[in-house]
Amino acid sequence: MEICPHLPLDCLITVFSLLQDEDLISVSTVCKEWYHAAETQWLWKRLCLKRWSFCNVSQFRTDTGTPSWKRYYLRRSHLEMKMKSGRSCADYTCKSLRGHKGKVVGFGYLVGNDDCSDVWKSTPVVCSASTDGTVKAWDIQKGVNLWTSPAQSPMQDIIVDPVRSVVVTSDCTGTIKAWEGLTGQELASFESGLSNAKLMLFNDKSSSFVMVGSIQGLVVLTCPALSEVSRHVVFDSFRVDLLLSSPDKKWIFTASKENLDLCPKVFYTETVCYPNKDEESLCQSLSINGCCAAVFLPSHHARIAVIHTDSLFSNKTVSVFDLTIKESKYKKEPQAQQVASFQIELRDRTNLTLEAKGSNTLLVTDGNFLKVYTLTGDLVASFEDHIQPISALCVDSFRVVTASHDLSLRVLTWRNDKQHGLNLESQYQLLGGSHTMSRGFTNVACDYSSIVASVESVDGKDVLKAYTFDF
Q: pTM of the predicted model, to two decimals?
């Protein structure tokens, strides 16, 4: 394409708006006039917002002090290029976080980088809990332990609140504790008497709550004070072992995998977090039973997909529901409308995980397979990147990471497929060490520029592996 070098600036900018990033950089070397046109902030802002839904350019400024969209675009695209290629040493560093003397039961980011915040300033900090009775905080870039809590009974679960810098744990005696994330100081303790308690963090407006699922039902506590707010019976004699909150913060999903005859239930959060003595909590049972896995669709306010079965056969059903509140003059009534249903065939019933992306994409692990479905039941893709079952799955806006018992992580990145829309492309593996020392990965978590996974060790002293991508 020939362009006259003497076109007015406005005309050059209009023409350059048709170019991609590499072409825009190339034309800036032609002459002084083209350079000034190609440096126009609007052009680079347009490229940024086309590629990413949110951009924080506050740390990238021109010589005049205004935000530099070009610097932001080049820096962030360079980071994503490294995360996509995954070359050892050149693109990332790996640290082994050792110190626990038992099994790692869970971990989470206390400080992390995401695509909607300043990915250039934060040093990621991860907190982990172990059956050795301790909680630890780690600087994953340096690979050092920041603090360790006093030992207590074996830990069973952990949740992390990055907004308030709080860590909450439960142990085998039913003791639930809140810890100050930066120092490890104990903030509060609650004797629930609930063994095998499942924890979930719930942030609503300016308040924070801890949801506790157990054989006694659902217990709601304030966070970090751990004061009891309400209690709710869910399943008589069966434990609540699946807790989820909807993107609009209006619903809590509860389910038990212990009995195929049980129907999942959803609670209206306003009535469990802010109970009225004169009114009962609003709860609705879904018209299915035998819940195996569930996930809320991130781009819908209150749409949940559930994998369920009423038998032990390999075929299972995915049902999708929209949750709403019907309001009349005198009462509110929860409703669950089924909007989709389709069957899927699974080879492995024991290693089943369900995650979602956007408004129409479901990811299901099936043994050593990762499968991608649409809400209409179309199998878009199937990946067999592991030689042993997938143990955990992490999904974000840029990539998907699968962890496996074969002691490897597989990184896949999102792309737009002309025929099926959103799809995945398998990229590379991250290895976790020696099979003589380890039994495989057990869990995985990601922020925008790092991946952390737990490794089950042969000697019973589990290790965390942290992969940090350089930018």
A: 0.88
